[in-house]
Predict the structure.
Amino acid sequence: MRQFKCLMPKVISFGPGKARELARSVAGKKILVMGDPGVKSSGAVRAALDAIGADAAAVREFWDIVAEPTEQQITDIVAAVDMPGLDAIVAVGGGSAMDTAKFVSVMAQGGPSMEDLFAGRFSGKRKASLIMVPTTAGSGSEATPNSIALRPKLNLKVGVVCEEFMADQVILDPELLVGLPPNVTAATGLDALCHALECYVSNKANPVSDMFAMESMRLTFKSLRTAVADGADIEARGETQLAAFYGGVCIACSGTNAVHALSYPLGGRYRIPHGVSNAVLLAPVFAYNKDACVEKLAMVADLAARASGTSLGGMNDSDKADYLVDYLARLAQDLKIPASLEELGIGPEDLDLLVDAAFEVKRLLDNNPKPLSKDDIRVIYTGILTRRS
Ligand SMILES: NC(=O)c1ccc[n+]([C@@H]2O[C@H](COP(=O)([O-])OP(=O)(O)OC[C@H]3O[C@@H](n4cnc5c(N)ncnc54)[C@H](O)[C@@H]3O)[C@@H](O)[C@H]2O)c1
Ligand SMILES: [Fe+2]
């Protein structure tokens, strides 16, 4: 019997206008609101901040989080925002803002260093509570005990898993996503799809992650195209937001694998946005994985087909799995994700470095349903070096 453990945020609220619930959560407290300049300039969180201002005991705002931060940038941010007696941190933004806030929540007020966290040398408790208000629908960071930092010396993004990173409260308000540009909506939505699909076929998959993964993928197949085409469609925004949250729940109790492992060097070395690097790899990795998880891929194919009004009646599981791989490639193409590494500025001379770095992401490769040698990794990268016409 497969054993598993699942952590969840304590309180989850979902619905248009829910960000205004922040006021009640922070009443009388000393809080730090954190985000990045993109979120701040989007204006999406103004109403929530106004509400906080009236009720909190003290509010400090910090809007200088950088996208996909390095370990040094995180350490610098901790030093810049550390304040004694802090009661709560409110992270407003995408995965970059939420991950940074997680690090701050344990490192501030005399907590561990980044080195301690990478080495798993922290067993204490964070002092401030953590409230997550996602403004992208992708990372699912609001539901995970993981936080990711770029480590330039390893040419990789590295994930730290720490139970103290788990949010106390998550507010999912689709109105905050209305101004998210189509390209970011597409890339982040495909990241959520990677989370659900990888966790569904993972060696760590279990009944809870399977349930959340299937519903996450159903919602993505149904609504991601609409959310990209019409950012003001609140129904579609809400469904992509739930898809991302459920993808995070999957990460918390199962685990991503080869797509994320091969994607980390693309982000770590070439600074390609996380959602884009995953999306480029999604179909090629599942073409490789197919024979190890054909039955599960067939079930996902049925979901994808149903969302596009197609019936796969008469197909066997192998044909359905092939349909899914084609569907994933088409989805990425329709959402204008680059089809090759060349389009991302990566050439054949970069292959050795990519292969060596990806092979070190054992934490994730060990979850893949089919083992990958260095040669297998090289074949996958080589297959997407140039655009196939
Ligand atoms: N902790 C986890 O479990 C986990 C899982 C997956 C990914 N991640 C990490 O999350 C990060 C990526 O997060 P992301 O994909 O959400 O992107 P992001 O947080 O980097 O944001 C992408 C861009 O969108 C802008 N933006 C965000 N919300 C906006 C809004 N409402 N309107 C306008 N612009 C807005 C931001 O300013 C930024 O420029 C990566 O570092 C990745 O490694 C973490
Ligand atoms: Fe991801």
